[in-house]
Specification:
Elements: H1 7-21, E1 34-39, H2 50-68, E2 72-74, E3 78-79, H3 84-93, H4 97-114, E4 125-126, H5 130-145, E5 149-159, E6 164-166, E7 171-172, E8 175-176, E9 184-193, H6 199-204, H7 214-224, E10 226-235, E11 246-251, E12 262-266, H8 270-276, H9 280-289, E13 300-308, E14 316-322, E15 333-336, H10 342-350, E16 359-360, E17 381-382, H11 393-406, E18 410-416, E19 421-422, E20 424-425, E21 435-438, E22 443-445, H12 472-475, E23 476-478, E24 485-488, E25 492-493, H13 496-499, H14 502-505, H15 517-523, E26 528-530, H16 538-552, E27 565-566, E28 571-577, E29 583-584, E30 589-591, E31 596-598, E32 605-611, H17 622-629, H18 631-640, E33 648-649, H19 652-673, H20 682-698
Parallel strand pairs: 1-2, 1-26, 3-4, 12-14, 26-27, 28-33
Antiparallel strand pairs: 5-6, 5-9, 7-8, 9-19, 10-11, 10-18, 12-15, 13-14, 16-17, 20-25, 21-22, 21-24, 23-24, 28-29, 28-32, 30-31
Helix pairs in contact: 2-18, 3-4, 17-18, 18-19
Length: about 700
């Protein structure tokens, strides 16, 4: 045994032994109790970062502990390999995105293996491989057949220079992140999955997730956004041959009906479309709205229409088209009560509309209660509200709903904030959507026997427009049913589609079928899922929807994918700026007794402790740490320096402290194995045991 700890030699020795003995490989074994531990799989961006190290170190501890407890443990790894970064890199580096992606996978795999994680690499998957995405194409066809997938027009962020759709994250201050062009709201025909059909089940099943953080469940509940309200038919006073004599409004606050001073409809509302066809000014307003952010600027267009108040005779409310009213929520129309809704108040002030308080706070005088710049949204008693006066809010809601029902102009209604999942992406590096458009206008699903629909081989990508639209030899096909000319769908799936079911594929990653029933029933649900809280909504909610949809299409017998969820904290680091206010990395910093300088001798401004990010250069390369101190040091620091649910600040002193501790453990081992070991007598044994147990307790 070496007298000096050589982390490179020791770690290489044991990692090699683990691989030779295949101790982390696992198979379905009904005689053993299973435990499935999984960390959210990484995007192959090029190198692992400290967030990866912490995430996978936490999962590794759980996997090893459960294995020692006798469980049959599955701890797999894969790659969320489609996505925009690969496409952008391919454009810059003038190479196929597949080449860039697989190069990164190979590099990151070697980095993860150097960490000594207890991963079963025989189950490795990459979502960009046709053997993976052929199954999700098959899922889509079944969802289409079950009417859980459909196509409709919707607004997207359109870059007029690059001629492509941008995600919200790619729009910076209203401009395209690459072209700098003013982004437009453009209507395109898009594919959707009917997540809204599962709103109630997704909400109710949250109660079954006892081992999920309460914060995540609350976030999902709010996102699903169940609201109980009322639908009211406001009669249009002067319809003038409109497509309807009524405007149907949804409201969660029918108690404020006597404070209503205007009605607003979405620019996409059928009545808006009717008005636009007759009014050039209205048409111009709608076009302006396509470039406006409703969160920043709320704008309205006063139409020639008025609606009759349902309870106040001869009172008319002006009808506006407004950019903040969404067609996707409720009925695409609202009544505005400025006194008790801040958005409505700002709108009323801007357009000089009446403000009528109808809820009086406790211990406030009606004569002195005024609304000026801040809406009152608290509890109180109804005022200025005829038959509702004196009632509490909840009582008033019930009263209004009953009255509306008696007048046959309104009914109680449940709405959900959750919208259907827009799947279409006008990008090359994604899974092709398996449909074609026949020349007679029919949408034809690709037969399952012809799956996968593979991406065409390309040498180089351009940065403008949809690449697949330009590849005629791939796009132009014949209809398998009739032999008529057809064109392939050139949109690809949102990459959340791949990450919504990958945990299922780990159970039998090499099987020709998507799932083997015995394996799925044995391993699922995932016992412990680990990942950042930033995925609380999209990924986790989509995954929950996906298992329910696959259940209802006959693929699996599962209601929830993840039994336990743990959201770890971020890894943070001090930030630094040089004399030019440019961000500089910690490897460029020199600590002197009196000051901190960069490697040019210039004074450095020490900034906040923030999440490690490339943009602020406060990153530390795990490979450098593993090379210098070893994987055990990096993992030990990640596990011991801060509770796992909290943020962890990366410090050089913390790392060296962990390295010293591991060396002490090594030295203790040398002492135990050396010939100079303490003589075996009762007194020495007792003292040694005391010291040993003190050490265990303190550690």
């Amino acid at each position: 045994v070496s007298s000096r700890y050589n982390h490179k030699k020791v770690e290489r020795l044991w990692q090699q032994k683990w691989e030779e003995e295949k101790i982390f490989q696992t198979v379905t074994d009904e005689n053993k109790k299973k435990y499935y531990v999984l960390e959210m799989f990484p995007y192959p961006s090029g190198k692992i970062h400290m967030g990866h190290v912490r995430n996978y170190a936490l999962g590794d501890v759980v996997a090893r502990y459960k294995k020692m407890c006798g469980f049959n443990v599955m701890h797999p790894m894969g790659w969320d390999a489609f996505g925009l970064p690969a496409e952008n890199a391919a454009i810059v580096e003038k190479k196929p995105p597949s080449e860039w992606t697989y190069q990164n996978i190979n590099l990151m795999r070697s980095q993860l293996k150097s960490m000594g994680l207890s991963i079963d690499w025989t189950r490795e998957i990459a979502t960009c491989h046709p053997d993976y995405y052929k199954h999700e194409q098959s899922f889509f066809l079944d969802l289409l057949k079950k009417e859980l997938a459909y196509k409709k027009e919707s607004f997207v962020n359109w870059d007029p220079v690059d001629q492509t759709v941008l995600a919200n994250e790619q729009v910076i201050d209203g401009k395209g992140w690459r072209s700098g062009a003013e982004i437009e709201q453009k209507k395109l025909s898009q594919w959707f999955l009917k997540t809204s059909a599962y709103s109630e089940e997704l909400l109710n099943c949250l109660d079954q997730l006892d081992n999920w953080p309460s914060k995540v469940k609350i976030m999902q509940s709010n996102w699903i956004g169940k609201s109980v309200g009322v639908e009211i038919n406001f009669k249009i006073n002067n319809p003038k041959n409109l497509i309807s004599n009524y405007i149907n409004v949804f409201s969660t606050r029918p108690d404020t009906i006597f404070g209503a001073t205007f009605c607003a409809i979405s620019t996409d509302h059928p009545i808006s479309k009717d008005i636009i066809n007759r009014d050039a000014a209205a048409k111009k307003f709608v076009k302006e709205c396509s470039t406006l952010n409703p969160e920043k600027e709320k704008k309205g267009f006063k139409t020639h229409l008025f609606v009759e108040h349902p309870f106040i005779e001869k009172k008319l409310l002006p009808v506006f088209m407004a950019n903040f009213v969404l067609m996707e929520y409720g009925s695409g129309a609202i009544f505005g009560c400025p006194a008790h809704d801040q958005r409505d108040l700002e709108f009323a002030i801007k357009y000089k509309l009446e403000i009528i308080p109808v809820i009086l706070p406790e211990k406030k005088s009606k004569d002195k209660f005024k609304i000026t710049t801040e809406a009152y949204v608290g509890e109180g008693n109804l005022i200025n509200s005829s038959f509702l006066d004196g009632q509490k809010i909840e009582e008033a809601k019930k009263t209004v709903i009953k009255k509306l029902a008696l007048k046959k102009i309104g009914n109680k209604k449940i709405n959900y904030r959750l919208r259907d999942w827009g799947l279409s992406r006008q990008r090359f590096w994604g899974c092709p959507i398996p449909v074609m458009y026949r020349e007679d206008g029919e949408i034809i699903p690709v037969p399952k026997k012809d799956l996968p629909v593979k991406l065409p081989d390309v040498k180089e990508l351009s940065g403008s427009g949809n690449v697949l639209e330009k590849i005629d030899e791939w796009r132009n096909v014949l209809c398998p049913e009739t032999g008529m000319k057809a064109k392939r769908e050139t949109d690809t799936f949102d990459t959340f589609f791949e990450s919504s079911w990958y945990y299922l594929r780990y159970c039998n990653p090499r099987d020709l079928n998507a799932f083997v029933k015995e394996d799925i029933n044995y391993w699922l649900p995932v016992d412990q899922y680990i990942g950042g809280i930033e995925h609380a909504i999209l990924h986790l909610l989509y995954s929950r929807f996906f298992v329910k949809a696959l259940r209802d299409t006959g693929y699996i017998e599962l209601d929830e994918p993840f039994k336990g969820l743990f959201t770890q904290g971020m890894v943070t680091h001090q930030t630094f700026q040089n004399h030019k206010n440019e961000w500089i990395g910690p490897d460029e910093i020199i600590y002197n007794k009196e000051s901190i300088t960069d490697n040019q001798g210039n004074k450095v401004k020490v900034g906040k402790i923030e999440k490690m990010s490339k943009s602020k250069k406060n990153i530390v390369d795990p490979s450098d740490i593993i090379e210098k101190y070893g994987a055990d040091t990096a993992r030990w620091f990640m596990l011991s320096d801060s509770p796992p649910e909290r943020d962890l600040e990366w410090t050089e002193s913390g790392v060296t402290g962990s390295y010293k501790f591991i060396n002490k453990v090594w030295n203790l081992l040398q002492l135990c194995l050396s010939n100079d070991y303490i003589e075996n007598n009762k007194t020495d044994n007792r003292l040694l045991k005391e010291k040993t147990h003190d050490t265990i307790k303190n550690v």
